[in-house]
């Protein structure tokens, strides 16, 4: 159905399964005075169905780290909001990400006075909205968050890979596969062409000619037998 499916959310468990990931920042042989990490979390589809819900951001206590994030925006646990889901077709979408197929919420963390050869962790807790994927049509789709780091001084601090992808594969094993009409028509045409090619080969090999001669011979024998009787 294309209609909205409302659901009352009393707790995080009503949203769906947890998805927790950690971002590790490792420094080299030069101290860094300031760096920022921006985490992009797919929030909604183009059809306004919710995807991931941010429930917490926890930072390493060893460093001077502060984060700006909209955590639990619906105040779940204090209120019981009603959330609606509508059918969307994800069959032709391989990935739900912040670039083209989803709108995102951002988490920005600032890391100050990073030590030489240090390790710093950002732990992000989310929930995946079950209702969206239950209402939508697909077999397999990848939900991808991402994170990027900036040191604000690329001339001094060279970062080989400043972006990392955080993929989640979501599968709906009982969903029937959709066979496009073009594939069906193409298969029929291919079958007809193959049959015509086979007939042409058999004709060149004289298969039908031999069959015709044998049938003619059998008919002549039947006529002769009839005359003798």
Could you explain the architecture of this structure?
With 229 residues, the chain is of the alpha+beta class. It folds into two domains: 167 residues, Immunoglobulin-like (Sandwich), CATH 2.60.40.1530; 48 residues. The protein has three helices and eleven strands, in the order βββββββββαββαα. Strands 3, 5, 7, 8, 10 and 11 form a six-stranded mixed β-sheet that branches. It has a three-stranded antiparallel β-sheet with strand order 2-9-4, with no helix packed on it. The protein is flat. The relative contact order is 0.20. One of its GO terms (molecular function) is integrin binding. It is found in: Membrane. This is Integrin, alpha 2.
Q: In brief, what are we looking at here?
A:
The chain is α+β, with helices and mostly antiparallel strands and 229 residues long. It is built from three helices and eleven strands, in the order βββββββββαββαα. It folds into two domains: 167 residues, ntegrin, alpha v. Chain A, domain 4 (Immunoglobulin-like, Sandwich), CATH 2.60.40.1530; 48 residues.
List descriptors.
six-stranded mixed beta sheet; 2 domains; integrin binding; 229 residues; transmembrane helix; Integrin, alpha 2; Immunoglobulin-like; alpha+beta; three-stranded antiparallel beta sheet
Number of strands: 11
Q: Could you name the ranges where pLDDT drops below 50 across 5 or more consecutive residues?
A: 179-184, 222-229
Query: What distance separates the N and C termini?
Result: 77 Å
Shape: flat
Domain count: the total is 2
Portion in beta strands: 35-45%
CATH class of the largest domain: Mainly Beta
Give the helix tally.
3
Structural class: alpha+beta
Say which CATH homologous superfamily of the largest domain is assigned: ntegrin, alpha v. Chain A, domain 4
What value does the Rg take, in angstroms?
32 Å
Second CATH tier, the architecture of the largest domain: Sandwich
Q: Name the helix and strand elements from N-terminus to C-terminus, one letter apiece.
A: EEEEEEEEEHEEHH
CATH topology of the largest domain: Immunoglobulin-like
What is the mean predicted local confidence, pLDDT? 81
| Main beta-sheet annotation | 6 strands, mixed
Helix fraction by DSSP (H/I, runs of at least 4) = 10-25%
């Amino acid at each position: 159905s294309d209609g909205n499916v409302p659901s009352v959310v009393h707790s995080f468990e009503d949203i769906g399964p947890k998805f927790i990931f950690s971002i590790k920042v490792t420094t080299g042989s030069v101290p860094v005075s300031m760096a920022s990490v921006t985490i992009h979390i797919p929030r909604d589809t183009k059809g306004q169905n919710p995807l991931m819900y941010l429930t917490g951001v926890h930072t390493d206590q060893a460093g001077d780290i502060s984060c700006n994030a909209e955590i639990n925006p619906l105040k779940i646990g204090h209120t019981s909001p009603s959330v609606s889901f509508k059918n969307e077709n994800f069959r032709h979408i391989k990935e739900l990400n912040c670039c083209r197929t989803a709108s995102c919420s951002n988490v920005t963390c600032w890391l100050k006075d990073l030590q030489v050869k240090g390790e710093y962790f950002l732990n992000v807790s989310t929930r995946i909205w079950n209702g969206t994927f239950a209402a939508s049509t697909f077999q397999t789709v990848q939900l991808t968050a991402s994170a990027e780091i900036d040191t604000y001084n690329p001339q001094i601090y060279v970062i080989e890979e400043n972006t990392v992808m955080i993929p989640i594969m979501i599968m709906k094993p009982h969903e029937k596969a959709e066979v496009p009409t073009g594939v069906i028509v193409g298969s029929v045409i291919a079958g007809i062409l193959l049959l015509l090619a086979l007939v042409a080969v058999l004709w060149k090999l004289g298969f039908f000619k031999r069959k015709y001669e044998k049938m003619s011979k059998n008919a002549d024998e039947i006529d002769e037998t009839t005359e003798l009787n």
